[in-house]
Write a structure and sequence with these properties.
This protein is an all-alpha fold. It has twelve helices and no strands. Helices cover 68% and strands 0% of the residues. Helix 1 crosses helix 4 and helix 6 packs across helix 11. The relative contact order is 0.11. The N terminus and C terminus are likely disordered. InterPro entries: Homeodomain-like_sf, HTH-type_TetR-like_transc_reg, HTH_TetR, Tet_transcr_reg_TetR-rel_C_sf, TetR_C_Proteobacteria.
C-alpha cells in the first residue's frame, strides 16, 4: 500500500495529514488554474509552510504527479487490483468498469486533460510521465486483467493492449465527450451501469473464448457475485 492510504488506531501521523492537505489543495488549485499555479499558493491553501511542501515533494512536477497518481486510485487501488485477479473475467471487468466510467463521467475530467496536455509547454516529456501515473496506469491494469482472462482460458488469444483499447472505447464513446463539454448531464448510476454492462457484453462476444459461450454476457447475478468477492 502506498503511504497516504495507511491508517492507525491513534489517527494518521501528523506529516501524513499535512501530505494529504497538500494534495487536496494542489488538486483543487490545479483543476481551477492549471499547472501555472504556484507552490506558494498551494502551500497557503493547505495551511503549511513551503518548506513543508518541499519536504514531501521535491518540486511542483513531483507534486502534480502525486495528485494524478492519487486520482488513479479512485479507479482501482493496488489492493483492489490484486483482489480482482482472483475473480472471473466478467465480474472483474465490471468492477473496474464501474469505477473507470464513474471517474470519466465527471465534468472536471476535462481539467485533468488540460493539465496533462499543458505540461508539454514546460517539458515535452512531462505529459508521458503524468499519463503513466494516471490514465496509463488504468490502461496497464485493464490490460493485465485481460491477460489474466486469456491465461485462464476465458478470453481467446489476442493482443491484450488492443483489447483493452477496444473495451475502453466501448465504455467512453461520444457520450463521454458530451459530458466533458457540458452538452449533457453526467450519467446517473443506472445509466452508468447500463453503459458498462453493454460494453462488456459486446467485448465478450468478440473476445470471449469459444468455450465461454453464453457465460460471456454480464448478468445481474455475476455482477453481484463479483461485488461480493471484491469486498
Amino acid at each position: 500500500m502506498i503511504a497516504f492510504q495507511m491508517t492507525s488506531s491513534r489517527g494518521r501521523p501528523k506529516d501524513l495529514v499535512k501530505r494529504e492537505a497538500i494534495l487536496d489543495a494542489a488538486r483543487a488549485l490545479l483543476l481551477e488554474h492549471g499547472a501555472d499555479v504556484t507552490t506558494s499558493a498551494i502551500a497557503s491553501q493547505a495551511g503549511v509552510a513551503k518548506a513543508t511542501l518541499f519536504a514531501h515533494f521535491p518540486d511542483k512536477d513531483d507534486l502534480i504527479d502525486a495528485v494524478i497518481r492519487r486520482e488513479s486510485d479512485r479507479t482501482v487501488t493496488d489492493t483492489e487490483y490484486e483482489k480482482s485477479l482472483a475473480m472471473d473475467i466478467v465480474p472483474a471487468l465490471h468492477e473496474f468498469g464501474i469505477r473507470f466510467v464513474r471517474f470519466i463521467n465527471e465534468r472536471e475530467i476535462a481539467g485533468w486533460d488540460r493539465l496533462i496536455a499543458a505540461a508539454a509547454k514546460r517539458n515535452p516529456e512531462l505529459p508521458k510521465r503524468f499519463f503513466a501515473s494516471g490514465p496509463g496506469r488504468g490502461q496497464t491494469i485493464l490490460t493485465s486483467l485481460i491477460q489474466d482472462g486469456i491465461k485462464k482460458g476465458r478470453l481467446r488469444e489476442c493482443n491484450a493492449v488492443q483489447a483493452a483499447d477496444d473495451l475502453a472505447g466501448l465504455w467512453i464513446g461520444f457520450s463521454n465527450l458530451e459530458v466533458k463539454l457540458g452538452a449533457r448531464a453526467p450519467f446517473t448510476a443506472a445509466q452508468l451501469k447500463k453503459k458498462v454492462d453493454h460494453g462488456i457484453n459486446v467485448f465478450m462476444k468478440f473476445y470471449g473464448s469459444s468455450d465461454f459461450g453464453s457465460e460471456g454476457t454480464l448478468s445481474t447475478k455475476s455482477a453481484r457475485e463479483g461485488s461480493t468477492r471484491a469486498r
